[in-house]
Design brief:
binds zinc ion; about 15% strand; 21 strands; six-stranded mixed β-sheet; alpha+beta; about 625 residues; globular
Length: about 625
């Protein structure tokens, strides 16, 4: 890890002068209502590993070093504050114990838990902190605001599934919650996890030249998954419920920050929980890990609706990341500003698209207007204007920019070899790129070195120079996710990790126990190596027998190497094979083809008809390397 280049030092200095560092309201708000915390919020797993800690981020004191964007440094300090906080009468939050916040709403006799964090250990620690200072109250309800894992994964740390069932605890979620929660983690789970390493910088050492923050919170942490499926679904805006004397009005916001999400209005408390639809940052319209692009127009409209319907009747706006905002005037400024930044980016991107500009051209030109961009909550600590412009472009137009020169480009290795040849060879490229590095042209250096690395991946000089430029880009980035991505790239270029282990990346057994059979078949379908089974045509009936004796069936049609499925059963006379499994067998099968074949061979699966086709299908299932290469071929 190298020091800040003079061009990086100069860029940081410019920001120190341009941004309103004298406005320190957020530092008051982030501590307002503080009750207590644990030292460093240090939390262990049952096995004694660190599930969560702020210990390594103790360096975030004083003013920013030149290796960290000063605006990001400010956010990293705010996100280092942790503990139990009183939001208003009857509403408390534990913040800084996980990436997200958990909100505790006190009812007449018990407790409503909103968003039980990422892991069981995080949720348990937060609940214990709450109970130590507010007493033990029975949990009456768990509410998930949306389908992202940092908001539901720790539910079993609040109550076990058995307790939820035995005590009749209400578990509420917005419409589409389970489907969206599965779709993100299962279908694109492998590449998303790999890219998450870049987004969150999970393996970067903490420090002024390494990990400082994640923008929405400090880090991801680790622990055990413990989703408890919802018992109730909220299906429309304006729906009301009363839980333990607490009245809640729901506003559904699908397609904004998450495909299934909702805001919660507490009229008796004059409080509005805007889930993750507002934060003290410009959020992203597509995370660096990858996702279906989010709808900036819908997002801004939901915030407009929230402001109109509830905004004038509340004294506090809280959210499931960052700290609350109190007082009418500041609430209006905050929510309207958040609304306007998404609307502005949306409308201006569409306007410039209509003038024929492509995403990279718009990203280079478009900035939020000064009156917005000087508000701290509109800075891009998690999202970034450039990346959001690209997401808006893709949302409407897809990945192709319309120029047929980009219709069928050579892939990186083939293109890299030609670029190197055209540019006069590796040494000529390195010599020019070193001059550009000294001139601070870091974006261009990583572009040129990309071609050289994909042509000659073992050329250390190219890897080193690219890593040095990536690092300076990381030091300058205001967005924590950009910083993490650049620094992760630098790390992998300097110490090439060796992938190729071809371990299967199983979905967790807990997840399989909840998965609809149709979703499990989609999980299998994306693993089929199509060419190997393209000659097979088969109709398979698959019946899943649940623990309580209930069943679900899917009629599978294997055709042209594609695994189609529909609910129901093929008629017996048109069926090639019929398979009956239990949940436990399904969990075992999720581990990989070897386990499935073993179960078949041992006669553990109930198969009617010739099993050859089943065997061929299982043999064709692919295995994935969870650490595939990204910055090199
Ligand atoms: Zn979140």
């Amino acid at each position: 890890m190298k020091p800040a280049h003079p061009h990086t030092q100069a860029a940081q200095q410019r920001l120190r002068q341009e941004l309103p560092f004298e406005d320190s309201q957020d530092f008051d708000d982030v501590r307002r209502g503080f009750i207590a915390t644990l030292p460093d919020a240090h939390t262990l797993t049952d096995a004694g590993d660190v599930a969560w800690t702020m210990r390594e981020h103790g360096f975030l004191q004083g003013s920013a070093p030149d290796t960290v964007n000063p605006s990001l440094w400010r956010m990293a300090q705010l996100n280092a504050v942790h503990g139990l906080f009183k939001v208003c009468e009857g509403i408390y939050q534990v913040r800084g114990f996980s990436l997200a916040n958990v909100t505790f709403v006190e009812g007449d006799t018990g407790l409503i838990v909103v968003d039980p964090l990422t892991y069981v250990e995080h949720a348990r620690a937060a609940l214990q902190l709450y109970q130590a200072h507010r007493g033990k109250r029975p949990v009456r309800a768990i509410i998930y605001t949306h389908s992202h894992r940092d908001h539901y994964g720790g539910a079993a740390g609040i109550l076990s599934l058995e307790q939820v069932r035995a005590q009749g605890v209400r578990v509420m979620a917005p419409q589409g919650f389970m489907q969206e929660a599965f779709s993100e983690t299962i279908l694109a789970g492998v590449p998303m996890r790999r890219r998450s390493l870049f987004q969150f910088g999970t393996t970067l050492p903490a420090g002024p030249k390494g990990h400082v923050d994640s923008g929405l919170g400090k880090a991801v942490g680790r622990g055990r998954d413990g989703l408890i499926p919802p018992t109730e679904t909220v299906t429309r805006t304006g729906e009301r419920t009363v839980i333990d004397g607490v009245e809640i009005v729901f506003q559904l916001t699908p397609g904004a920050e998450a495909p299934a999400e909702m805001n919660l209005y507490f009229p008796q408390r004059r409080a509005l929980n805007l889930a993750e639809n507002v934060c003290h940052t410009l959020h992203n319209l597509c995370p660096l890990r990858g996702a279906k692009t989010r709808d900036a127009l819908a997002w801004s409209r939901y915030l407009d609706e929230a402001l109109h319907d509830y905004g004038a009747q509340v004294d506090v706006v809280l959210a499931q990341h960052h700290w609350p905002v109190w007082g009418q005037e500041r609430i209006q400024t905050f929510v309207a500003g958040q609304r306007d930044m998404y609307r502005y980016l949306h409308d201006q991107t569409l306007r410039l698209m209509s003038r024929g500009l492509t995403a990279s051209e718009i990203g280079e030109r478009l900035m939020l207007p000064n009156r917005l961009s000087r508000q701290w909550f509109a800075r891009g600590y998690y999202g970034a204007v450039v990346h959001n412009v690209a997401a808006i472009y893709a949302h409407y137009m897809g990945p192709y920019d319309g120029n047929p020169a980009h219709l069928n480009p050579l892939p990186p290795e083939a293109a890299g070899a030609r670029y190197v040849e055209y540019m006069g060879g590796a040494q000529a490229m390195l010599a020019r790129a070193r001059q550009d590095f000294e001139a601070g042209q870091f974006r261009w250096v990583v572009e040129v070195m990309k071609h050289l690395i994909f042509a000659q991946p073992t050329l250390t000089a190219a890897r080193e120079l690219s890593a040095d430029a990536m690092e300076q880009l990381g030091y300058q980035a205001e967005s924590a996710t950009w910083r993490n991505a650049y620094l992760q790239a630098a790390k992998e270029l300097r110490q090439p990790h060796r992938g190729g282990t071809h371990q299967t990346l199983p979905i967790s057994a807990d997840m399989v126990m909840l998965l609809p059979l149709g979703s499990f078949l989609e999980f299998l379908g994306i693993r089929v190596q199509g060419e190997q089974v393209q000659h097979l045509s088969a109709r398979i009936n698959w019946t899943l027998v649940e623990e309580d004796g209930g069943t679900q069936s899917q009629r599978i049609h294997l055709s042209h190497g594609a695994l189609n499925h529909l609910p129901g059963l093929h008629p017996a006379d048109q069926t090639d094979v019929a398979l009956t499994t239990t949940r436990a067998q399904m969990a075992l099968m999720a581990q990989g083809p070897a386990q499935m074949l073993q179960a078949l061979d041992a006669g553990e699966l109930q198969v009617q008809g010739p099993s050859d086709v089943l065997r061929a299908l299982v043999k064709s299932l692919d295995q994935f390397d969870p650490m595939f290469n990204v910055v090199e071929p």
